[in-house]
């Protein structure tokens, strides 16, 4: 058969050699960019392989030292960027991450963060948020308000030094305040789970406070983005449309989602048509927030939040998407962030500013949480433990910082400082929690009068 096939092809080839085809159109038969698309794909694949290998390796190392693996992945992204690899081996850096790959990597990173925020919304139990008592609400909002005010006040000093005249002080101070106020809910949950504290009363309080923080901070971020992108009158319209959107999601879409979830609960598995519907609605929600003037991530997050956390649909979506997002897409986001982080821009006295930013973030977050927790009846040690947990930033902080950099509100130098702040505050969580745990001698439970 093979011999006959070869013989027939050779005969066909001989017959066709005498044929004449018309001349190609002007500019050539190959469209511009068509020849290079295969090369770009190969470079993206090489970049992704490098990112995944280094991220998983450093994540494993950090887990060995009882740190969240996500911190190792964040640091891996920074090391692959100009701060280390681009400094010590610029040729290798240029080969792994050429300039034309960075935008493609950015698209993959943004898609990964979009899906990740959808997963975060799936983990947010809105029913619990409505039922929690006053002390949880007080702790969570104190942990937002205090660092927000301190960050905004710090802008009075940093704006003349680290900003430019084309950025208004209002936008700069709002973004600096919100960057101090974010909690990494997924990282905090992972720390509590690794330590077996998620079921303790203090662990439940910390998780609930972080969930309230997430919801509040993302609503606040949506407002800040609206103010930044619009003029004063436009910001009011953006805020109004945002409120209408949130009400519509919970009053109109959520009842429909509850009915659909109840119907799909009888399915042994979610089939592809159901998955397609969910993905389309998530993307439409993201497009709606983009149309309003707030970030697309907020739309994905809020759609995830209206799906019941304990439903079969939520558990199935989480199990199907989590590994794919965490293993492949999020490391691309960390690397994309690392490629934009230029620690070399910080020099001389500016390291003192970096230290001041980190100190302000810690004092605001830790101080506001511990005081509120103590006033609501928690002991000093448990209040300090909650304060340390709430000081965890990690991935959520990087998402906020990338939004600020994309909007041009924060400069690359300030971006590098805030990335370092996020890494330092998250790295400090586990060792300090270990120290408090050793001093307490027991499972870090709340005192009897805490609630």
Instruction: Provide a count of the helices.
Output: 20
Shape: globular
What is the averaged pLDDT score?
Answer: 80
CATH fold-type name of the domain at 127-327 and 349-446: Na+/H+ antiporter like fold
The number of strands is 0
Instruction: Tell me the Rg in angstroms.
Output: 25 Å
* Through-space gap between termini: 82 Å
Query: Could you list the spans in which at least 5 consecutive residues all have pLDDT below 50?
Result: 32-36, 442-451
Strand content: under 5%
Structural class: mainly alpha
* Helix-strand sequence: HHHHHHHHHHHHHHHHHHHH
- In CATH terms, what is the architecture of the domain at 127-327 and 349-446? Up-down Bundle
What does the largest sheet look like? none
Q: In CATH, what is the class of the domain at 127-327 and 349-446?
A: Mainly Alpha
- Give helix % range: over 70%
Give a description of the structure.
By secondary structure, the protein is mainly α. The protein has 20 helices and no strands. The protein has helices at residues 2-16, 34-64, 69-79, 85-88, 90-96, 101-123, 126-131, 134-162, 169-181, 185-194, 201-229, 232-264, 272-292, 296-305, 312-340, 350-375, 380-390, 395-406, 412-427, 429-440. α10 (185-194) runs antiparallel to α11 (201-229). The longest helix is centred in the middle third of the chain and has 33 residues, at 232-264. The protein is globular, with a radius of gyration of 25 Å. Residues 32-36 and 442-451 have low confidence and may be disordered.
